[in-house]
Design goal:
Blueprint lengths: L6 E12 L2 E12 L3 E5 L6 H9 L6 E8 L10 E4 L3 H4 L6 H10 L6 H14 L5 H4 L9 H13 L5 E5 L7 H18 L2 E6 L2 H7 L2 E6 L2 E7 H4 L6 H8 L39 H5 L5 E3 L2 E3 L26
Parallel strand pairs: 3-7, 3-8, 5-6, 6-7
Antiparallel strand pairs: 1-2, 1-4, 8-9, 9-11, 10-11
Helix pairs in contact: 3-4, 4-6, 6-7
Length: 327
Amino acid sequence: MSVSDDVLLSVRDLRIAFAGVEVVRGLSFDVRAGEVLAVVGESGAGKSLTARALLGMLPREAATAGTVTPDLSSRLGRRIALVPQDALSALSPVHPVGDQLAAAVRSVRRISRAEARARAVAALERVGIPDAARRARAYPHEFSGGMRQRAVIAMATVNEPDIVVADEPTTALDPERREQVLRVLAEQREAAGAALVLVTHDLDAVRRHADRVLVVYAGRAAEYGPVAEVLTRPRAPYTAGLLASLPQDGPRRRRLPALPGTPPAPGALPAGCAFAPRCPLAAEACRTTEPEPRPLDGRLVACHRADEVPYPAAALFDESFQVRETV
């Protein structure tokens, strides 16, 4: 995988293990200037661990290998910043929100308290918090869930970082507030000219807001490429399964297709492709040899039978689909 001139962050063969068990198993990807890179997959795929590796925020017991270039972890808040999943736990309960934003400003800028305070209020205004000067004096518990998430977006972008990492930023929100927060995040990213790494399981959000997508299964890349190609005609059966389980426009199906089974535990991976036990296309080679990512149709895909994934993707998980053992 070559590195282009607009790449801000390059990850190669990232591996993360706990007690000798690999949870992330050789991920490689780039974060380019100004783009939104979505990282998607089921719970336990290693998405959040990968995001925290970019930030240098892995637990002490984690063993890592591979490279993240350049290493921006020492410049957290200045070059790279985090929008966490749980805004309430990310904010101190004993300090007003405005004081916390002002402290974030002064951690990277040599300015007065008054100027830092003014920047904090302006940041809250930019994310759409009404009466920001007054609300800056409020404590996190006095904010609604959506407003707290806006506040942590303000904190992440107040110092205009090059990269913002958003780790499941809308998980606890209802659909209306979820879209509002994603829109605010997109606006702030664009205003700062930053790249965004969006860790999510929401493929609809990926379709609307991302430029490229990294689909992760059992700690490895299943598919990686432009959103327009990957989500329109996926080549990895796992990506096809994720898309097939989404509600479709038009006449309702008799039953929504769903991925069979569950992801394997990191310490109990099957031989060959980790997705093979759940895959309608799995053949003998899939059960014995783990596929490596290869170029196909403008993306990278790790699948022995990628050329045989049908269109539309939902057909692969339809009861009437016929498997052909050609591998």
